[in-house]
């Protein structure tokens, strides 16, 4: 047409194509992650198949690593000492330990429940409890919670209709909440048992007290910040 001019590739600003690709990439990644939870269509089935193979691979890798760690741990156990330790433990102590362990894992389901509440998602509590119990059991044994716990949660929550992006957000929120709780325990311990902890960290008791005050103060500041609005 009259005033239209065709721009040749030579006149294009250097690096413009790369910048345009980088601008599109987050949207494309978000679209792909969201499509994992959408139903119907050949593309959906293909993506879900790929995700299933990836999840299966990580699950087998986690199981193999767990077996390896278990075998290595059991190889260092003296059976005679183990029998003596069991014989010296009363039935009441075993029952109390089992009850407190069950109570602990029950409390851990609250992390996933609070994360789902923060993300404004509705998932049956039975699914939440299963995902929380299995993910923490695996990550407490193997470490690397963002990978191990995230993989287990994806395996369970994806069947409940959650997208990969939401499951990743849930894993991060639950992890942050857990470590905030740990920070609270550490801060209280340093504040009220600074002298006892000095035998471990070799700091002066008043230094431990100051660290404890700093940790608790940081937690209060964080709680005040997140209370100002939905984050």
Please state the overall shape, judged from the principal axes of the Cα atoms: globular
One letter per element, helices H and strands E, the order comes to: HHHHHHHHH
Largest sheet: none
Rounded mean pLDDT is: 80
Q: How many helices in DSSP terms?
A: 9
- Quote the distance from N terminus to C terminus: 51 Å
Structural class computed from helices and strand pairing:
mainly alpha
Instruction: Tell me the radius of gyration.
Output: 25 Å
In percent terms, what proportion of residues is strand?
under 5%
**Approximate helicity band:** over 70%
Q: What's the number of extended β-strand segments?
A: 0
Taking pLDDT < 50 over at least 5 consecutive residues as the criterion, the unreliable ranges are 7-12
Ordered list of secondary-structure elements with their pairings:
Elements: H1 16-35, H2 42-75, H3 79-87, H4 91-118, H5 125-142, H6 145-157, H7 164-192, H8 194-201, H9 205-226
């Amino acid at each position: 047409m009259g005033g239209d001019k065709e721009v040749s590739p030579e006149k294009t600003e250097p690096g413009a194509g790369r910048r345009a690709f980088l601008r599109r990439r987050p949207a494309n990644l978000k679209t792909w992650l969201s499509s994992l939870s959408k139903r119907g269509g050949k593309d959906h089935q293909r993506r879900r198949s790929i995700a299933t193979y990836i999840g299966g691979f990580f699950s087998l890798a986690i199981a193999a690593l767990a077996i390896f760690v278990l075998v290595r741990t059991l190889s260092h156990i003296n059976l005679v000492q183990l029998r003596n330790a069991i014989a010296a433990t009363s039935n009441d102590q075993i029952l109390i330990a089992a009850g407190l362990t069950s109570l602990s894992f029950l409390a851990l389901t609250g992390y996933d429940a609070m994360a789902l509440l923060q993300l404004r998602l509705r998932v049956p509590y039975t699914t939440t409890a299963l995902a929380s119990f299995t993910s923490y059991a695996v990550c407490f044994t193997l470490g690397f919670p963002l990978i191990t716990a995230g993989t287990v949660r994806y395996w369970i929550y994806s069947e409940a209709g959650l997208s990969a992006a939401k499951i990743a957000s849930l894993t991060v929120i639950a992890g942050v909440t857990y470590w905030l709780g740990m920070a609270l325990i550490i801060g209280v311990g340093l504040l009220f048992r600074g002298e006892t902890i000095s035998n471990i960290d070799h700091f002066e008791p008043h230094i431990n007290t100051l660290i404890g005050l700093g940790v608790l103060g940081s937690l209060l500041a964080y709680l005040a910040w997140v209370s100002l609005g939905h984050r």
